[in-house]
Each structure stands twice: as C-alpha cells, then as structure tokens.
Amino acid sequence: MSDRPRILVTGASGFVGRHLVPALIRSGHDLRLALRRPQPVPDGVEAVVTGELDAATEWGEALAGVDHVVHLAGLAHAGPGLDEQLYERVNTRATLALADAAIRAGIRRFVYLSSIKAVTGASDGPVADDDEPRPTDAYGRSKRAAEQGLAQRDLDWIALRPVLVYGTGVKANMAALMRLARLPLPLPLGGLTEPRSMLAVENLCDAIGFALSPACPARRCYIVSDEEPVSVREIIAALREGRGRGPGLLSIPPSWLAGLAGLVGRQDRFAKLSGGLVAPPAALLRTGWRPPLAAREALRRLGAAAG
C-alpha cells in the first residue's frame, strides 16, 4: 500500500476534471474519483459511485482512507433562467454536506473550486482577493454561500476563485473565440484591446496541486488567473499563431462593432466578448505559487491543438 496521501476528486468527468486527473497522476498522487455513474477510469485510480450531488449524498465509502478532497463537482454557470434554489441545492448545500462528512472522516485539506463570480459579475476596475464579495447572479451567490459555510467549519479549507478558464475541450464564450480564430478570413476585432484576466486550465491544475501542499496557507479564498491579462486582439493573434498564421485583424472602433451587434440583436454577446475583467492572482503569488504557462504561450498551444 502506498504511503502517499490519497486524494478524493469530485467532478472528474467535467472540463477541469478531465485535465486535473492526469495532472495529479503525473505528479505522483494516489487518486479516488467520486462518480455519478460507473465509467472507465485511468489505470491505478480508484473509483466510487456516489450518485447525484445533493445534501443527501452518502460520502462514507468515498472518504474512507482519504487524506485530501478536491471538490470540483457542481452546477456550472449557465446564465439566466435556472432556478436559484437549484444552484443553492447543488453548489451550496451539497458542498457543505461533503465538508461535514470530510470533517467526520478526518480529512486534512479540502480544496473547493469556487468562481470569480462569487466576488463579482462585472467590474470597471481590477478585482482583488480581499474585495468585499458582491455576486450578481444565482450561480455566484451559491458559490459565495459555500465559501461562507466553509469558513464557519473546523476544517483546513481553501477556496479557489478561477476567472474564465480555457483549454482543450472548453465550451461557451472561449469556444466561440476559437471558432472565430479558425476562420480563414480577416476579423474586425483588432480594436478590442480591453485587458481581461483569463486562466489556462494547465495553470488551474497547477494551482490546485499547490493548494494541496503545506506551502499554501489554508482557510481563505484565492483568485486564480494567468499572471498577465490579455485582450481579445491578443487572444485571436495567439490562437492563430499556434496555427501558423498571422493575426489577420482589422482595427474597427469598438463603438461601430457594438452598433452592428445591436442591429442584429447580439448586444449581450458582444458585451461579453469585448468587456474586460482584470483579477490578478496576487494573494496566491505571495504564497510562492507561479503559473507554469504564460497566457500567450498557453493560447498558442491551444490554437495548435485545435488544428
């Protein structure tokens, strides 16, 4: 039997989990995955089927003999329309039920994947680790409530607040940018120079590994992002560079683009594309963590991987 710490990972089949599990294996960790339903797992990895995530989930078998928990599972941010009580049931109450079970099992460290949405929905200025949280939607409120619940428990917890995560297999807004970058045409996005913080999934996985170590002070929340923010212009240029192409960008004033988007009913999508949210990982950097990939290099790799 290995004397290395055993880590229970929830949400292993999600976007982050599909990257985190092999990263933790490469780092030499012993893993147990909590699964909603039976599915294949990598060689040498344990699996326990725990069913749907809610406050009544039975965690006894999954936590037996485990040293640390990485809790990725939850209801993803899906925009307006979902019942706030559903977010609260899955992201808040189920998380805190797992935390209580972890306390009973004597877990040494509980790493929770929260979100920058627990702090803010949008911002006109940089967001800092110690800013007063002001979530603006049901998803953000559910994540913030889970953080607050962890703070009330006698548990060695860390909550990571990632900004927009990108990497192979990403969906939603970043996938839309990747589709634009693949077009064999010039794009009128060269004027979108507003900086925004983003997070390569490789850097997030590294931050999770760091959070599991004694070097990372516990019982607090950390923003996680790449060290340098990037603009839409830089994102498209880096993705295309990874494909062996030039930027192919035309600098049209953003106000013109906004007007065109309004004419076709795409104001919200354009606002998400052009807006910026700068949230540096200052507190995590002070602990000694350094993201292994610069944003532009991670984007170049993503562009190359996309083919």
Description:
By secondary structure, this protein is of the alpha/beta class. It has a domain at 6-162: 3-Layer(aba) Sandwich (Rossmann fold), CATH 3.40.50. 38% of the residues lie in helices and 13% in strands. The chain has helices spanning 15-26, 60-63, 84-104, 138-151, 172-182, 201-211, 232-242, 254-263, 267-274, 282-286, 295-305, and strands at residues 6-10, 30-35, 46-49, 68-71, 109-113, 157-162, 164-166, 198-200, 220-224. A 7-stranded parallel sheet has the order 3-2-1-4-5-6-9, sandwiched between helices. Helix 3 runs parallel beside helix 4, helix 5 (172-182) packs across helix 7 (232-242) and helix 7 (232-242) packs across helix 11. The longest helix is centred in the first third of the chain and has 21 residues, at 84-104. The mean pLDDT is 92.
